[in-house]
Specification:
The protein is mostly helical. The protein contains six helices and no strands.
Length: 156
């Protein structure tokens, strides 16, 4: 019985080795021809190019502000747009100025010019909305959002 058990294990071992050799032989033609390496390199190259193209696409979306940084997701998104519009007209907010200080400073230059009076009113409204949304827990209402967009459109 011990001999039979040893013989069974030897036979299993021989069959296992035979299966391994057959598996190795099936892989040899691919290795000899180099086809396996070429296929692997082609897949690796295609994957790398695809990943690179995706990264470039995401980078351009990020630059355009269409990815991760939606300006309107911040409660006071409109104030930075107001500052950009005013800067185009030559009115730049100093870094140390609060929004109210900036408004007070530009208010004196607007009083002499009737054409700029409407711009002053719009700037005052957006500054007030900025304070309300920046320093309170509330966001713009849909009406206020439309109003802010209308003012910004008029300013640009």
């Amino acid at each position: 019985s011990m001999d039979q058990s040893i013989n069974r294990w030897r036979e299993k071992w021989r069959l296992l080795n035979l299966d391994l050799k057959l598996a190795e032989n099936r892989q040899e033609p691919l290795e000899k021809s180099g086809l396996g390496k070429r296929v692997s390199l082609t897949i690796l190259l295609a994957g790398g190019l695809s990943a690179g193209a995706l990264l470039i696409y995401l980078f351009f979306l990020w630059i355009q502000g269409k990815l991760f940084n939606k300006a309107e997701s911040h409660p006071a998104w409109f104030y930075s747009k107001l500052l950009q519009s005013l800067q185009k007209t030559g009115l730049k907010k100093a870094v140390h100025e609060t929004p109210q200080e900036f408004f007070n400073r530009i208010q004196s230059s607007f009083l002499e010019n009737a054409d700029k009076n409407n711009l002053l009113n719009q700037t005052e409204r957006l500054t007030a909305l900025y304070y309300e949304t920046r320093f309170t827990p509330r966001n713009l209402s849909p009406e206020e959002r439309k109003e802010a967009l209308k003012i910004l459109k008029h300013l640009s």
